[in-house]
Structure formats: C-alpha cells, structure tokens
Amino acid sequence: MDALELCYLSAGELSRLIEKREVSPVEVVDAHLARIGETDATLNSFITLLPEPARAAARRAESEIQAGRYRGPLHGIPIGLKDLFNTGGVRTTSGSRVFDTFVPERDCTVAARFQQAGAILLGKLNLHPLAYGATGENADYGHMHNPWNPELVTGGSSGGSGSAVAAGQCTIAMGSDTGGSVRIPAAFCGIVGLKPTYGLVSRYGLTPLSWCLDHPGPMVRTVADAALVMNVIAGHDLNDAASARVEVPNYTDALKGDLRGLKIGVPREYFEAPLDPEVAAAVRLAIGQLGDLGATTTDVSLPMFRHAQAISGTILMAEAAACHRDLLAKEGVKLYPPVRLRLEAGLFISAVDYLKAQQGRSVFNREARQMLKEVDLLVGPTEPVTAPPILAEKVQAGDQTIGTTAALTQYTRSYNITGFPAITVPCGFSRTGLPIGLQLAGRPFDELTVLRAAHAYEKATIWHTRRPAI
Amino acid sequence: VDELYPYVQIVLSGVRSLDEIDVAGAEPDLVFIPSPELN
C-alpha cells in the first residue's frame, strides 16, 4: 500500500492492519509526516510538529504490539490535538503568541486518555486565536487554508484540525466547540465532526472560552471513527466540575442498527433563515435519503431558533471576557486585534443581560426538549453557505448578505445552548467543488442514535470518499 | 477607543434583542449538564 493510501485509511481500517501486524505504526507515522511535509506549507494546519517524539512513540507501539500487548483500536494511530489541549512537556499556545512559550506540566484528560489508548500525537493544530472566532484566521501563526481551495477558510475555530484530517495529515484530530468550532470546520473541510453532549467529554486542561458552552469533540473522516474516539475519551472526570456521571456505552454498537422506526424532525425555521440554495438542495436531498433508509421525517417548529444568536452570543461574550479578563489587562496589546476587540466588548455586558440570556437559555431548552419528546433527532444544514474566502467580512446566503460570523454559527449555536449531541457529515458538494455538511442532533447523552443515523447515511452515500486535490 | 466604541455599540444593540424573548417564569439555566430525562 502506498503512503498516501495509508494517510487516507480510517482509524478502523488502519487499526485492523496494525493489529494483524500487516502495517507498522512506524510506517504509518512516517507516511503522515511525509504528507504533512508535502502539504503544510499550503495548509498551515500545525503550530507545533513533533516528528521525533512521534517516531519514538511509533517504535514503542510497534514493540508493544509485536510483544502481544495490543492496547486497542487507537494503538499506533496518528492524531493531532487543537493547540488549546494542554500537553505535558509540549508547548500549548491556544493560537496566540502570548502563549508561545507556555509548556504545561500535565496532559489534559483527553490527551492522557489518547496516550493511554496508544494513539500517537503528531503535533498541535492551528486554531483561531483563543478559539474565539468561526473562520480559522490567525495572524500570529498564519491563517488556516481549506484543502479543497486554499484561498478559502477552513472554518473555525478548530481550523487546523479540519484541514489536517481532510488532507490526510492525521487520522484523528480533536477540536473544541463553543458555538460550532468542531462542526463548522468539519463541514467546510468535508469531514465528520461530533460535538458530544455537554459534560460527556472532559474539558479539564483545555483553555476555556465559555464555561457553559465549551464542548471538546472528535474530527475524523468516518462516523465509525467518531465512535472509536468516543469509546476512549467519553466518561466522568473528577478534574472537571461539569463532568457528567453517566454510564458510557460502547459507541461502536451504534453502528449496527438501521433507521426503521426513527423519527427525524426538520425545523422549518432552518430553511426560512438565510441559506444558499445549493446548500438547501443538497440538504433536502439528504433528508429524503434518510427517509429512504427507513426514518420518518416530519416538519417541526423551533420558534426559539431565532433567538439563538442573542442568547449564545451574550453568554459567550460575557464568559469569554470573564475567562480572559486578566489576560486582557496584562497582555491585551499582544492579542490578535479582532479577538481583543471581542473580549473587550464583552466587558460591557451587564450581569443583568447575562442572566436574561441564561433565562432565555432555559426557555430555549424547554422548547427543544419538548420537541425531542416527539422526534428522535433534528436535522438540517450545518452551514448556510460553503467556505467563504479568507478574511471575508460578509457572505452571501441566498438573497441575503450577512456578517460572516453570524452566518457560520447560524445553525450550530443552538446545540451549544442546549448541550445536545450534534454531528456533521458530508452530504454533497457545490458546483465549485466545496463540501456541504448535514447536521443531526439528538437527545442529551443519546450519542448512539446520532451516530447510528449518521453512519447509515454515510454508508448509503459516497461523499465521505472524496479527497481534496492537494 | 475609536475602534472599541462602535463595536461595543453593535454588541450592546445585539444584546437588546434579548428583550424580545418572553422569559416569564423562567429561572436562569445555571445547571449546565443537560438531564438525560426529557421531562
């Protein structure tokens, strides 16, 4: 098998070869490092690359496996972590030069769980500074570039994670999602991104942006790989005050069922919002295919959707300003100006407005939970548009011109408000060859149903098999 | 300040759209982990 093929195998496929010793983790890591060498000057996915530590870890994995100590499906699999996941002994910049020399002493919980599973860290991935932005721009470490067209954004904030997985630079990446930062770059880069239920995956050791909206999540090329990652990273963590004490199932079990009996709601407000007709058509077609696969799809209404921006925007701006208040006071002048501006503006939001937004969140949650008594899943577009040009301030969505951030977070913010699990899967391409994402969201802690539907859709379609020309 | 002032004005006018939400009887949701039960 040639090196490029290795780089595009799923974690599931790769792990079967590694377990049978048909492929060595050393070969896998070398192939990925070569791929990064060929493509990263264009994409700028990585802030810190760890070639020698990765090769050493691959040799250790090879020895362990040869000695019969195979740890499981992530053993020997190359991964990347968004550079706000603390890694002991490896600098963690949070995408800002302010932290250019910050080296954490300890791994975050997610990194520790990957390491225990035998995954191999190739490097730390680029992000919108402090994860505070939806596009993937970064003046400090260079903007991220979309593998399908490097003149366009990856989406953010986990842009490096999106481009790295889409371009075969790593098999698995982790992102974090406060208003869509896993799902936006996953949709724009044509991969799978899962935002798990709030509290299911530990936030310990991640640079916070909003305590009540932050969710770490996997970014991968197949739904089955998302399940494999969840098997490793999900579960209670004493170090995270908002970690849920819930039973964690085997997520791979989700991949066996079909869609018969499943009720899927299509909020009509999603199609009344600004939306590119080409995206709308691809998503409508995908919803029809879910019906062909046995699900019942029905129109539903989520009137609170129109308030999602005000609710989550207010909470995010206040909490981000609070999270970074000291940083702003001491190092504000060194921050990327648009991010600094957003943080400073957050200082002007009153406690009264913040609490009104949290009241709004209660009402939003009540309505969404009521709806999920009637249907098992909600479906719609992940993004109203395909990836816009880097630094574009506005985008055209159908007949409306709207601010880029407002557009890119239009469909994703709702599930940060509710904390419900939400996944994006590729569901088509524009005439210009850009990926389009379908978003499925489910009941809290019911990742199994979300993964089952996404997997059934993926199996029935070919979108996930396309690769960018880079 | 020249840059901050107009931006703050935009932010605060966005916050004012919270006034359109009827929150009568709703307490702020400060229990961030969603309950697995829908009731």
Return the string of H and E elements of chain A: HHHEHEHEHEHEEHEHHEHHHHEEEHHEEH
What is the terminal separation of chain B in angstroms? 48 Å
Write down the overall mean pLDDT of chain A: 97
Strand order of the largest sheet of chain A: 1-3-2-4-6-5-12-13-9-7-8
- Gyration radius from CA atoms of chain B, angstroms: 16 Å
Number of helices, where a helix is a run of at least 4 consecutive DSSP H or I residues of chain A = 17
- Secondary structure: helix percent of chain A: 25-40%
Strand content of chain A: 5-15%
Oligomer: heterodimer
Number of helices of chain B: 1
Helical coverage of chain B, percent range = 25-40%
SSE diagram, text form:
The complex is a heterodimer of chains A (470) and B (39).
Chain A: H1 3-8, H2 11-19, H3 25-43, E1 46-49, H4 51-66, E2 78-82, H5 109-116, E3 120-125, H6 159-166, E4 172-177, H7 183-189, E5 192-195, E6 215-220, H8 223-233, E7 263-267, H9 268-272, H10 277-292, E8 296-300, H11 308-323, H12 325-331, H13 337-346, H14 351-374, E9 377-381, E10 394-397, E11 400-403, H15 404-408, H16 413-418, E12 422-429, E13 435-442, H17 447-460
Parallel strand pairs in A: 2-3, 2-4, 7-8, 7-9
Antiparallel strand pairs in A: 1-3, 4-6, 5-6, 5-12, 9-13, 10-11, 12-13
Helix pairs in contact in A: 3-4, 6-7, 8-17, 11-13, 11-14
Chain B: H1 4-16
